[in-house]
Design brief:
It comes from Halobellus rarus. By secondary structure, this protein is an alpha+beta fold. It folds into 3 domains: 17-59; 67-132 and 304-322; 141-288, Jelly Rolls. 32% of the residues lie in helices and 34% in strands. It has an 8-stranded antiparallel beta sheet, sandwiched between helices. Strands 2-11-4-5-6-7 form a 6-stranded antiparallel beta sheet, with no helix packed on it. α2 (67-90) packs antiparallel against α3 (95-118). It is globular, with a radius of gyration of 39 Å.
Amino acid sequence: MADVSRHPDSDTRREHRESGSGGGDRGQLLLVGALALAVLFVALALLLNTAIYTGNLATRDAGVDAAPAIEYAADSRTAGVDAIRSVNYRNDTTETDLNAAFRDTVDRWDDLATHHRAVAGDVAAVEVADTTNGTRIGQNSASRNFTNESGVANWTVASGSDLSGVRSMRFTVDESELADSPSDAFRMNVTSGGVTRSLHVYENGGDVAVRVDDDGTELSSRSFDPADGTLVIDVSNGSVEGTAYPELRTVIDAEDGTEIEYRYGDMAGGTYTMVIDDDAANDASLSTPGSGEPYATPAIYGATFDVTYRTSDLDYAAQIEVKPE
């Protein structure tokens, strides 16, 4: 009789086939799942990009470009600084005349700037809201030393309970007139708030030494070799011959009750200028402009401007302060 019983290997082969079939099904499921996730990620990316793009458009549509107004305010401040300097140094007159000349200068600049902005369809205007009167002290004779009108070497340039600001202070020093040692060197003392800060200038081995002291303690000292025999010291700007010297600015840190004094004025010569925010110049030691001696004359210390700028999307108004260094 034929043997009809299952071959012992048949079960094994069927298990192998069933096992192989199950692995294929799982592989197909994984592939389908991966494709589904890929489609989902692509869709999410598209949605995210659309949201970002829409947000950017909304920001651009809703925003207002204030750059022209800010630029106009900055230009107005620069024009105001130039106008103050020009009026102060071109006019040795009364405070009333100085203020009138200053306002006329600003008005002329405003007319030109307004016309320029109107070409773009913008409306701009600047007006002088207020001015702060002061005093300009200077010496224009390059061949004179830094003594007072009567030739006194140690003297008070300005002093007053309301003197609280010093600007536009510059010296042009003749190297040949300087002392050759720090002990008797020309120095300017500025006493304010109980503290005295000093500027010293003297010859040092063929160079010019510029030293800054803070209440008797040396803060900084540098040497310079002027090419033409004169040294420009810009105290307000914090530079010597165009080279940054920021410690110089500390000399004119001022508050109410400031005093400015020259010591050993016969040990330096050249020109100088400064503007103070008060009429506290020492009239007994100063002369008038054009005399060849150190002098004092009215000046504008600073001003405030009302600035407006209007476009179809912007209505800008600000008050800015104008004070030359």
